[in-house]
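User: For documentation purposes, I need each entry recorded in a consistent format: the amino acid sequence on its own, followed directly by the corresponding structure tokens. There are two entries in this batch. Please keep commentary to a minimum and don't merge the entries.

Assistant: Recorded as requested. Entry 1:
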Amino acid sequence: MNHPRVIAVIPARHASTRFPGKPLAPILGKPLLQWVWEGAKESKLIQKIIVATDDSKIARVASSFGAQVVMTRTDHPSGTDRVAEATAHETADWILNLQGDEPLIRGSVLDEMIQGLHPNYGMGTIATPLHNRADLQVPDLVKIAFTPEGKALGFRRQVPESEGAKWMHQHVGLYAYQPTTLRKIVQLPPSEGEKRERLEQLRALENGIAIQVLTLNFKFVGVDTPGDVTRAERALADRATTISP
């Protein structure tokens, strides 16, 4: 049986507005970026992992812990554009865009996603259930609505209580693209929804690209601001306690 060739790219830039230098932020003694890379390394189905960055310090640190690094342009408007540049000469069936701010990511989750991808979709992503309706009003938790068959209908940062029933899933910023779809997306101008919500996946959706949604029960702890570091450290410590003998 031929397995699909999967390449994972972790886009990492230094100039984050809310958290400058975020990829190198220490989390329990290791850079945030290293946690993501190590999680990806656990995967049995990913053939290559690339750290794509425009910053020489990030490149040095990533190389020091063993990552393959591709230097990219400094003017990319999104991580998707950076992923597209880093894989322009790669051959793959699927390209994963791994957000560099999810230190709890595990290879088993990535493998579950890869196994669930359907070739009829040019793009896939992950949703995980929301258990608190108050989260509908938290803009940093992106909400996703999708059909029972798993086709994305929309992405929003804040949802009125009256519409909450169909939005009770959090979107996790992990994407899989077929290479032709990735190249198409980065050639499109930013869409109205993308600019309004500051969500790059809306560019694909609003241009007629069908997005497959895979529902996984997994605890994701994104690091968006310096204040999230303590929360991530606590979650990682809890995980270590859970899996220790």
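Entry 2:
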Amino acid sequence: MNSITKGQMMKRLSANDIFGIWAGSILCWDENYRFDADAYAANIRLTIRHKPHGIYTTGSTGEFYALDFDEFKQMVDIQSHLCGQAGIPLQIGCCSDATHKTLRLLEYANTKAAVGAAQIVLPYWMELNDREVLQFFRDLYTACPDMPIVHYNIPRSKRFLHAGDYLKILEVCPSLVGVKYTFAGSHFSQLQDDIQAVPQLSFFVSEPLLASGMQLGARGCYSALIGVNPDYMMRYYAAAQAGDWIEAIKQQRRLATFYSRLGVLIGELGEGSSDPTVDKAMAVAAGFAQSHQRCRAPYTGWSDQSVATLRQWMSANYPELMYNQSSK
């Protein structure tokens, strides 16, 4: 489905093409914890209707670690078909704990014309030294030199990279075009320096730091919250993009408070706090997700009762985050 044929136009992305709000895709599991292709496609179609700047898959929210290769291929087929049909830019998460596994994912994504870039993490079980980091990126570029690469820069990979690292990586992997700069609040003093030192890369930050990050030169957000209320996230970005910093910072502070209070609620409910468990619970509670909140083991999705409690709490305290049912 949607494989590259002779003469077909490629839709690969440059750094200048990667901006705005990119929607993270949650995976869907049926009652037997098998990949639910129909529910997954329904979520993607609904996301596309709200016209995000792009869609990306299989990061932390997208449970990359839980898919086997055949399921990964099925997911990529669905994404590339729907995004290609709609003209929505697409990044496929090609993340794993070993180079040969990452390359297998990357090479399959590379067969799809609609895939604009691949988002990767450093193999994460044991910390890589500088030589190993460079070799990893060199291997990616050697295997698929025409596939743009976005680095999912996250401390869970044991190495959090900065401008000096990226300048060296660009020498062996010139296809690197962007950085998902997670936990930017913990590295905020370095964010501006990193953006200025490698302006050829597109830097993205998380929702609760979007306005401040854009003031320093970040270009957008890879967002799970767009799966709660996409219109809210698009308005938030539009305010920052227009330089309406009073409104943008107001929304940033509102989201920072939301996440802080959400953490307290999670503790009271005794539910899991991993990315997919929380993001799915919010998406279902808000009325956006066309699927159940279950996660594949070892992580446990929230109970129906806890999701109902979250829905009541969000409706009472953060009604602007609830999805407008009439827009379905």
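Summary note for entry 2:
Residues 57 and 92 are 5 Å apart (CA to CA).
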